[in-house]
Amino acid sequence: MDRLVHHELRASLAALLAVVVSAVVVGLVRGFPSVRIGDRLASSIAALLAFWVLIELLKATRIKWFGEVRDFDAATPVDPETVLPIEDFWHDRPVGLGLLPMMLVPTLVLALFWEPWMCLMPLLWGLEMAAKAARVAHWERKNGRVLWRGRVVSQPWELSWSPVGPRTPARTATEAPPS
Questions:
Q1: How far apart are CA 113 and CA 31, in angstroms?
Q2: Does the predicted model carry a pTM greater than 0.70?
Q3: Is 150 in contact with 2 (CB distance < 8 Å)?
Q4: Which neighbouring-strand residues pair with 159?
Q5: Rounded to 10 degrees, what is the CA torsion of 58, 61, 66, 69?
């Protein structure tokens, strides 16, 4: 089982890494054309950003076809006697390495053979996943539960929840690991 907020953060970091790697490769191979940001481009970017924020706010509601909070509320409880440990995100695995090639390869192909600015495409996915991680974290804090995915191997998208478990105390640099 994987904590949902950690899954989304790993995916957004993989998308950010895909943008960085593809931008460096495309910059070295093709170079980037110069762009003048005029009033029309700036207003188009602002309109797209406002539309994206509106969509993300709708996803944070319980509206039938838009909201994701209903999915969080409908999650099945894990065995009540089981309190799963919350792993340390940064030490466990901070980047979804399985998702990285799925984002990087098509992005590089499109950016190298079609349009260099396509290297920014994973940024859209990364923003979406970071926004979902924020929604999940807000729901968890509000409800005092932790959302998990992958309890049923055949249905990894199925969500489940458990009560917030005790965190393992962080070790300082001077402390020895437990033996």
A1: 12
A2: yes
A3: yes
A4: 149
A5: 140
